[in-house]
Amino acid sequence: MSVAGLVLAGCLSGPNWLGLEWRGDLILCQHPIDFARDGITVLPVLNGLDQGGYCGRTIDYIQLHRQYGDRTGFFGSAAMTTAGLALLSASAERQRYSAGTWDFLTKLSRDLAPHAHETARRLPANIEKSELTRQLFETEQRHVQQALDGFRRKSPDAYDTLVREVGKTLNPAEPLLQIALSSQPFFAVYLAALAEVHADLGEPVDFAKADHRVRVGLALAKVLPQP
Description:
The protein is globular, with a radius of gyration of 17 Å. It has one domain (about 20-220). It has a two-stranded antiparallel sheet. With about 230 residues, it is mainly alpha-helical. Strand 1 and strand 2 (about 30-35) form a beta hairpin. The termini are far apart. It has nine helices and two strands.
């Protein structure tokens, strides 16, 4: 079986996948960053350095992860997703998404950021970490679903394109896997988390389904380095 086949079968997962241990370091907008507090102590300011603003929002989420990561994996997972969009948008792989898809994802990312900061301010106490993480993802994905439903009503063709294009990223085939493996361990860990979701579902990850998106967020939270 090919490497892609193993991944999509869910046989490879975890933060030390294929010996590539990701410790939280990443090159983003040509700057080194780190999810862990004991890495790069002072994170760079990356606002305005990329077209969609993903780099700046990634730093915001990492700061929240460093502050609250002992209580929930929600913010770190959000940082991983936003960093993935930043890296994708800045590479030749940007063409995988149409202009309409990028417009939707960028607006969604911007709209979700204030919700994350409000969540941090009102983070409930005395809830077990995994349960709190799940609750936060379920709440976030209700906002995402509202945005998707509105997009589908307004532009049904563009909505279908969005779901199809994002679905190809959430269910990667050989070429994308090769790109990931030739780049940073961050990508390999991200793909391992997606493989775990695919294996648990027994079917492709569907971006249109809120429960699938929650599962992706939870899987990413599991491979996060400790803050």
